[in-house]
Amino acid sequence: xxxxxxxxxxxxxxxxxxxxxxxxxxxxxxxxxxxxxxxxxxxxxxxxxxxxxxxxxxxxxxxxxxxxxxxxxxxxxxxxxxxxxxxxxxxxxxxxxxxxxxxxxxxxxxxxxxxxxxxxxxxxxxxxxxxxxxxxxxxxxxxxxxxxxxxxxxxxxxxxxxxxxxxxxxxxxxxxxxxxxxxxxxxxxxxxxxxxxxxxxxxxxxxxxxxxxxxxxxxxxxxxxxxxxxxxxxxxxxxxxxxxxxxxxxxxxxxxxxxxxxxxxxxxxxxxxxxxxxxxxxxxxxxxxxxxxxxxxxxxxxxxxxxxxxxxxxxxxxxxxxxxxxxxxxxxxxxxxx
Amino acid sequence: xxxxxxxxxxxxxxxxxxxxxxxxxxxxxxxxxxxxxxxxxxxxxxxxxxxxxxxxxxxxxxxxxxxxxxxxxxxxxxxxxxxxxxxxxxxxxxxxxxxxxxxxxxxxxxxxxxxxxxxxxxxxxxxxxxxxxxxxxxxxxxxxxxxxxxxxxxxxxxxxxxxxxxxxxxxxxxxxxxxxxxxxxxxxxxxxxxxxxxxxxxxxxxxxxxxxxxxxxxxxxxxxxxxxxxxxxxxxxxxxxxxxxxxxxxxxxxxxxxxxxxxxxxxxxxxxxxxxxxxxxxxxxxxxxxxxxxxxxxxxxxxxxxxxxxxxxxxxxxxxxxxxxxxxxxxxxxxxxxxxxxxxxxxxxxxxxxxxxxxxxxxxxxxxxxxxxxxxxxxxxxxxxxxxxxxxxxxxxxxxxxxxxxxxxxxxxxxxxxxxxxxxxxxxxxxxxxxxxxxxxxxxxxx
Lengths: 338, 447
Hints:
heterodimer, A: alpha/beta, Rossmann fold, 2 domains, 5-stranded parallel sheet, 4-stranded parallel sheet, 12 helices, 9 strands, 42% helix, B: alpha/beta, TIM Barrel, 9-stranded mixed sheet, 10 helices, globular
């Protein structure tokens, strides 16, 4: 496995290896000297076609803690606007001998193009592409959940999985790369995932995903959940009739104070609340919920650095098992179609 | 009918060809016509073409070709596009109106027509835009285009849907005055804003905005009802869904004058290919699911879908060498159409060669009102024909094509059937599988 493009198709073996390596990286983060020489002399480029301060600085911190040289390339705006094409940008980076390219792009599939078009030899890490995937976000969510689940079980986190964990992912699934990456990864790790959203914010075809789907957040809570992941609702959705108003959305699908209290009434003392950030307080999550002891928001940010260190290290050291590339799957299907 | 036009001096004796896949016979071509057909022909001075093992078919007629000229000569020209057509076994193509400027005036359609006649590889029949600038607001001067030297009979805003129901009604009614037909690109615009690929299981996973089948089907349903109401001819471009097929079947059963086309690529490829995010698979309408492909094949076999239209859509490489969302929609098709249809329809036993001639030649010629095309291979008929080697196998190499477009979704695929020769009004535009030479026109081309 040369690239980290998606969690769809990521094997359990590789997922656990990344999470276990992230545990080792986290241990380094506890030390006074937080730096490892693992990637000294290697160059990591953060190629961001879309604004994202959080993800960029997380990758930057991860690469620097591994002693890599970091170049930040903010190619904001789209190549529609007569700017440089992705191909030319990629070849520029190739000429600068980038070893890894961390790409954030507004277009779904852009990291696949970068990895598979032959424009570049560097390892490609998807830092979020359109409404497709955000694999390192899912890995850091899984890392956070695994630590919690292991602690409850009294077992070490390393080597563990999420078998038996009930996880609800609630919000704008249709436009969420975080939701997609989490569905595949959490299922691979053995969790039972339920997506909760208004019907307008679920993709046609979701019925084929390895998860349950519900329109009713309260009934999902009542059945019992071990973790709830709230997804950000983008402001532009409100203009496009996906739901009547922010208030109605919040009442039906937001994690508000009443639902926070409901967890206590249900005796779900160990249920945690995740959010990938940035949060819309008062819309998909109330301040009380975001700031409660159940919230893992800051732990997620912290764990993000460890997970990204692990991904960079494992890809650049060639320590992940081979996996079929998505393109190979497509080729097989094409032959079937013929 | 024809206007003065040079005809080749040479005569050709095609020996041993299976006409429409039937009995072996000989055909004598002279003076731009088939002068004799029979088992015992001999003709002194004729060039003999050994056609043992070959199938003789009427020259193919494409109702849906993008030649890009004027305006996008970097993508294709009338010259390169019609060379590709000849190589693919075509003797006539309908050039879609979405050029720049748009073919919405008599001047532009006459220009395209003249370029086609000058090139001399096939008959070029310009399609006129339905609305000014394809903007869907105001009817273009349809009558002027019909009366022009280009004698336009097919009108389409292809690429754009005539979505305004009242404008569509008026267009359908108006073209009755000159026996025209509206070729609708069925795509409800609001349901497809930002759409990138077929909406379904694959789009859900890939996070690409979905292009629902209902956006096509709802327009077809509306338009067959409009065509019935006003008693007009309607043609549906590039039908792509199983639901569209059901609506067409219903409409035809009610006697509505609707015809429909399907592209070769929609008979073979599915949206699973989009998993690669390779924009060579990006096309409008999008590649659909395997169930749709099966329904389209069955509809073509039972006559619900009438014709093959290639929707040949060449693009320069930079339009495809990019992110999926940035890429242009479209695929080349002229040089692979015959092979893909043989593969999908003939080798599957769904159609014979006589049916092949119907869906690729006689019916499209009738829809486009081309009197000299799509004719039977009989004495006295225009010598528009193609010799096909059905046992050939070849691997698609876009670099080796005559079209400027390198955007073939079949690259690297092995396909059956090869065009050995194409005769355009008696002139061998293709011989031994290679481009030969065009018909040199003395004046404007004939209709």
